[in-house]
Design brief:
Layout (H helix, E strand, L loop, with lengths): L1 H7 L2 H13 L29 H9 L5 E2 L10 H5 L4 H9 L11 H11 L6 E4 L1 H13 L5 E6 L3 H9 L3 E6 L10 H7 L4 E7 L11 H14 L2 E5 L20 E6 L12 E4 L3 H14 L5 H12 L1 H25 L4 E2 L8 E2 L2 E2 L6 H8 L3 E2 L1 E2 L9 E4 L7 H21 L1
Parallel strand pairs: 1-12, 3-4, 3-5, 5-6, 6-7
Antiparallel strand pairs: 2-8, 7-8, 9-11, 10-14, 13-14
Helix pairs in contact: 6-12, 7-8, 7-11, 12-13, 13-15
Length: 420
């Protein structure tokens, strides 16, 4: 207690403190029962995220590999490239803006640009730090005792890692090779019950490039709306397509759309994502969640993002052109190596999901490819160990050279397997 005496600096006050302290009772904290639907107390449980195999693999190799065919983006942009698309006034604003906090909902001008692109009211737009933060908020808010969520398999690791870490039952609908990588709405519906909080559809799908048709999405929307289930449409690869074009689910009144500038726009460094939400109560929950999680995006990233969105014909056009051109090269490559590799051409996005026709685990294949300067993403990163993800747009004009190198590796691998 000496430190209290020194701090008070007065013996009279100290004697009064002692008197008060003697009258106090120590009351043990009661076991709390949390009834708020957006809070969950799991006594004795531990939140644990499973290893992020994909990012661990990419971080190990992608920074100094010669040909990165594991990348799921399009051709890269520099800051100067983006600024060159802007007018003088916007460039001046970028170079002279204050590096301060932005708004939790996002900068007004950025939200207006997204609202115009998505054809929704500006109040429906919530800015987040990439689509990843949107997923964190959605799964956090879905976490209730006994609840379940329905997600695709294979799929982006975050889809399953987040709900599993929060104690949510995770149900999978299969995007099957045997079904032509079709997203089956009927299978999704069969998995739903009264405890289902959220159904997630990723179209174009990572890693297969599968898409869901407009009519199928509308039927799924009606199904979820009738049952009070949140329908989430992950559209980070929209609108890059290779045949059937599909519309954004932002047009559907009970759907939640998440998207970002990392994939189709191919400027992941700005870390800008957004949510389109027509329900005002949910929007308030997202605002509160991101205020806790990340507060806001960077002002620098928001200005660059606004430029890219307002000049989306140029930015998206660059990705679509590279993806279309390189997919044709990939089609010829896969035909030439069909004795070793199988595949289903993607309907959208910038990734394909080939497999080894031998059925063997492809991680040794992918590991050996790195020694030849080729980076692929092993299928076990997506719970499909005989497959691998191959990105065909990020390499841009270098894709033809990458395929030449990859082809030589495939032939050597095939010969090695025959010898073995």
């Amino acid at each position: 207690m000496a430190w209290i005496y020194l701090a008070l600096g007065c013996s009279k006050l100290f004697r009064r403190w002692i008197l008060i302290e003697r009258k106090l009772k120590i009351i043990p904290a009661p076991t709390r029962r949390i009834n708020n639907r957006n809070q969950l107390l799991l006594r004795g449980a531990r939140m644990q995220l499973k290893p992020f195999l994909l990012d661990a693999w990419l971080d190990q190799y992608e920074h100094d590999i010669e040909f990165n065919l594991a990348a799921s983006t399009g051709p890269a942009w520099t800051v100067n490239d983006i600024l060159a698309l802007a007018d003088d006034e916007t460039r001046h604003r970028f170079l002279n803006h204050n590096l301060v906090y932005s708004r939790p909902a996002g900068a007004d001008s950025l939200r207006e640009a997204i609202a115009e692109m998505q054809r929704v009211p500006v109040e429906s737009v919530q800015i987040v730090t990439g689509a990843s933060e949107a997923l964190v908020a959605l799964m956090w808010l879905a976490a209730e005792p006994g609840a379940n969520v329905i997600i695709p398999l294979p799929g982006f690791t975050t889809f399953s890692a987040l709900p599993e870490s929060l104690g949510l039952e995770t149900r999978f609908y299969r995007v099957r090779r045997e079904n032509g990588f079709r997203i089956d709405p009927d299978e999704i519906k069969r998995l739903a019950d009264s405890k289902t909080k959220l159904i997630l559809v990723n179209s174009p799908h990572n890693p297969t490039g599968a898409t869901i048709g407009d009519g199928e999405m509308e039927a799924l929307h009606d199904f979820t709306a009738e049952r009070g289930i949140q329908l989430v449409s992950d559209e980070v690869y929209h609108p890059i397509y290779h045949g059937r074009q599909t519309k954004s689910a932002a047009r559907l009144p009970h759907a939640t759309v998440i998207a970002d500038l990392s994939k189709a726009f191919s400027i992941p460094g700005v870390r800008t994502g957004w949510m389109i939400e027509h329900d005002a109560q949910r929007r308030q929950q997202y605002w509160t969640a991101r205020a806790y999680f990340s507060i806001c995006n960077t002002t620098t990233g928001e200005i660059l993002s606004e430029i890219a969105i307002r000049k989306r014909d140029v930015v998206l056009g660059k990705t679509q052109e590279a993806a279309t051109r390189n997919l044709k090269l990939l089609e010829r490559f896969m035909a030439d190596h069909r004795d070793v590799l199988g595949w289903i051409p993607p309907q959208g996005g910038m990734t394909a999901f080939p497999w080894l026709v031998s059925g063997e685990n492809d991680r040794p294949f992918c590991q050996a490819a790195t020694e030849r300067g080729i980076l692929l993403a092993p299928g076990d990163c997506f719970d499909a160990p005989s497959h691998f993800r191959l990105g065909f747009a990020a390499a841009g004009d270098e894709f033809s050279k990458a395929l030449d190198r990859f082809g030589a590796f495939v032939k050597s691998w095939s010969a090695k397997m025959v010898t073995a």
